[in-house]
């Protein structure tokens, strides 16, 4: 029989009894009998693999059992076994980190609390070019605990005019690798993850979900919409910036404020992209090298404010800077109820094809036949098949004797479509039949399909003026 | 009862109370029919809020008094205790004498 002394933090489990008498001949037996008597103590006295955890010390009389025979230490009837918690704590930074971040910590409005939040935050920087360079340098220097960098590009000599993260030595090497090396030299206390790949609809959600904050430093519309939509879908704040020639813009999209209100996003400003070619990129239109330095630094500032909770975030506000006139403006903007991804009736519920969305995919052409040619074929009695892909009710209004296979049925009725002779496909005006032909060509290997230009409407208005038109 | 810091890490940023000191404190409390209900430590640069390191090392059913002493001058003190979700909750305290 040994007396076991229970420390205050564990007394709750022994009905507030400080001293418990346990029948046992050694320390291991004491602990197992104690746990079978008070099962709730188990998680405090044993690790998952059945050892005594490092934060618990066991004393027999006045000696630590580590200096005796550990668990096999024999006990006499008069032995007192004491369970002693290891009481410890401290700040969340090493001495080196405290010294490094001293100029932050001594700002009263910032302090240790904000610095701790920076260390705990995970920021994804998309694009490590003109904007990414200053932003990454300042985020790493400030002590953002985890920084992810996405870029598929390699360093080019023409980048060095503004991308201050790189030097001549790095020309030809992947940007993310050079960036990681430089940033690790700057701050060894942080973690850098790299994604040497294009940011696309296929990988966006998987990458973004690992982070708390996204910073968009890309230079094209398709990626901007992709970043925006990924952030909206995953509920992440998107710190946005863009530059062109002498002008820069910054805003924070999709920001959740302290009242739980979600701020507007990029699509509240611009629901849809401009036509391709209207707004040139920096590669096409040029940019003054110092401008991304200014705008990327402001972007870093907003990331730090979002991460630390210090200051008023640029949410619902759009900052513009004109380097030539030094005119700065901060425009307010609101949520748009018709926003296709976050409005009242969202139509976008997942990532889409942003190249196509931005009009960058040249539309594939299909073979065509005019109403006149078709009429000629009919008069000549040529051997061809005529298919109408409209709906039955449309067919009832007006038809030219074609076989009716509505567009949605096409993939299931391919056996009705000849592969041996020419097939003319039509709809009302030519749009749906073109879509149907593209699908049949792509999925089923047809190469004998012709789209009737202008559809049934064009045909009947030329050759059957009496027919109903709808 | 003041005790020494036996942390094997840098003592400016980590603390650990020797088991033997804890044992002595408990015995002392028992002798006077008192209870050892918690410990205190100081934050020399930080506020009197517990750090993540404090939380990870903390025991339940035990009070942690943190005294903030920026530039070695008293600024504030707060009592903390882990709740059932293993998060610190502030405790109201009253100084009797």
Automatic annotation (TrEMBL), chain A:
What keywords are annotated for this sequence in UniProt?
Nucleotidyltransferase, Transferase
Spell out the SUPFAM superfamilies in the cross-references.
Answer: Activating enzymes of the ubiquitin-like proteins (SSF69572), MoaD/ThiS (SSF54285)
Every copy of the Rhodanese domain together lies at 380-468
Query: What InterPro entries does UniProt report for this protein, alphabetically?
Result: Beta-grasp_dom_sf, Mopterin_synth/thiamin_S_b, Rhodanese-like_dom, Rhodanese-like_dom_sf, ThiF/MoeB/HesA, ThiF_NAD_FAD-bd, ThiS/MoaD-like, Ubiquitin-activating_enz
According to the UniProt entry, its GO molecular function terms are: nucleotidyltransferase activity
User: In its UniProt entry, what is this protein called?
Assistant: Molybdopterin-synthase adenylyltransferase MoeB
